[in-house]
Design a protein that fits this description.
With about 350 residues, the chain is of the alpha/beta class. It has 2 domains: about 120 residues, Rossmann fold (3-Layer(aba) Sandwich); about 160 residues, Dihydrodipicolinate Reductase, domain 2 (2-Layer Sandwich). It contains 13 helices and 14 strands. The strands form 2 sheets. A 7-stranded parallel beta sheet has the order 3-2-1-4-5-7-6, with helices on both faces. Strands 9-10-8-11-14-13-12 form a 7-stranded mixed beta sheet. Strand 6, helix 7 and strand 7 form a beta-alpha-beta unit. The longest helix is centred in the middle third of the chain and has 15 residues. It is globular. The structure holds NADPH dihydro-nicotinamide-adenine-dinucleotide phosphate (NDP) and N-acetyl-L-glutamyl 5-phosphate. The site of N-acetyl-L-glutamyl 5-phosphate has 9 residues, from strand 10.
């Protein structure tokens, strides 16, 4: 059995990690770490866990993570790096859910986040976008789990970037996210009356995921992209739907696209290509799938890609577990096969 510790276990991503790892046949959770819930059992703080688990939250101590083979850090950006460093020095495999180990270039990280205290560790970490970077993930001691928006955007664009079918300038990524993407924030802007029956854009032309998407596309596909990324807040709890617009540089039709996407993702269980219909949030909600559909708009010579994920699963906890499966040479699907909720 793989022994796992979760730091930041009381947050939305931490709880989702616990929920998923409890059903993973090869994992034993050895510690769940939270300062706000210290010494409380999970079936008291979150009654959903009654009769399933009575794991007790504990405060961070070296002894709490020493027995683990893998540590998941589900902490805020900037704070996570301290805990990742401790886990790394103890020789553990560390999967970080924050942005702290997603970048190779510490200057790019600093521009959107904060000064990195351990820039040398960025060279030792693998970007955990499983379908694209499996080779690096297999041998890494630190895995930087991707942002939720970048997961939907890069997986949606990857086959077109690889086959050099689109203009690398002027790509538009228009993404809509459920509110759990913001974590357990209690700010006024995230209260029910502000969100329900409302829909709004935010961080227009300045969201920090723009640089993550750009850096990764450049490193993974050798393409220096110039793109616009606009996130929106949907009045739903989970899910991201990204609509991506790019200009075609070759004259192709829909059947070519179907072939290209099916070929690119032919061995990928967690990618579902929609050839005739279009993906919807409800198909992926509660699953580790990314659903991708597309059309060509001949009038404007644009390809329009629709890419959907559950932000807490493929966009966070599920992809982190997929990374763990890769790193520990398990079948990638272990513990992650789920059908989307019907409603
Ligand atoms: N929500 C999402 O859809 C996604 C989130 N992520 C990333 O995953 C990470 C966790 O996100 P999420 O669960 O949503 O966030 P939450 O705000 O829901 O939870 C974060 C947890 O971190 C702990 N924490 C907060 N501040 C500190 C601190 N100063 N020191 C130590 N622990 C602290 C808290 O637990 P306690 O106070 O009990 O210790 C809290 O429960 C973040 O980096 C986020 O960006 C990534 C992809 C998607
Ligand atoms: C709806 C919402 O607020 N979403 C978050 C992104 C969540 C995420 O996955 O990104 P990180 O892991 O980089 O935090 C945001 O826009 O900041």
């Amino acid at each position: 059995m793989i022994k796992a510790s979760i730091i930041g276990a009381s947050g939305y991503v931490g709880l989702e990690l616990i929920r998923l790892l409890l059903r993973h046949p090869e994992v034993e959770i050895v510690s769940i770490i939270s300062s706000s819930s210290n010494q409380l059992s999970i079936d008291k703080t979150n009654p959903q866990f009654k009769k399933v688990s009575a794991l007790v939250f504990e405060e961070f101590k070296i002894e709490a993570i020493e027995k683990a083979d893998v540590i998941f850090c589900a902490l805020p950006h900037g704070i996570s790096q301290e805990y990742v460093k401790i886990g790394y020095d103890l020789g553990k495999v560390v999967i970080d859910l924050s942005a702290d180990f997603r970048y190779k270039d510490s200057q790019k990280y600093a521009k959107d986040y904060t000064e990195h205290k351990y820039p040398e560790l960025l060279q030792k970490s693998a970007y955990g976008l499983c379908e694209i970077n499996r080779g690096e993930i297999k041998n890494a001691q630190i895995i930087g789990n991707p942002g939720c928006y970048p997961t939907s955007a890069i997986l949606g664009l990857a086959p077109l970037l690889k086959s050099k079918l689109i203009d690398k300038n002027g790509i538009i990524i228009d993404s809509k996210s459920g509110v759990s993407g913001a974590g357990k924030k209690s700010d006024f802007a995230y209260s029910f009356c502000e969100l329900d029956e409302n829909f709004k854009a935010y961080s227009v032309a300045k969201h920090r995921h723009t640089s993550e998407i750009e850096e990764k596309c450049s490193l993974l596909f050798g393409e220096d992209l110039n793109l616009s990324f606009t996130p929106h807040l949907l009045p739903v709890k989970r899910g991201i739907l990204s609509t991506i617009y790019a200009t075609l540089v070759k004259n192709i039709d829909k059947s070519n696209l179907v072939e290209i996407y099916n070929e690119f993702y032919k061995d990928e269980y967690f990618v579902r290509i929609f050839e005739n219909e279009l993906p919807e949030l409800k198909y992926v909600r509660g699953t580790n799938f990314v659903d991708i559909g597309f059309e060509i708009d001949k009038k404007t010579n644009k390809v329009i890609i629709i890419s959907c994920i559950d932000n807490l699963i493929k966009g966070a906890a599920g992809q982190a577990i997929q990374n763990m499966n890769i790193r520990f040479s398990l079948d990638e699907k272990t513990g992650l096969v789920m059908v989307g909720e019907y409603f």
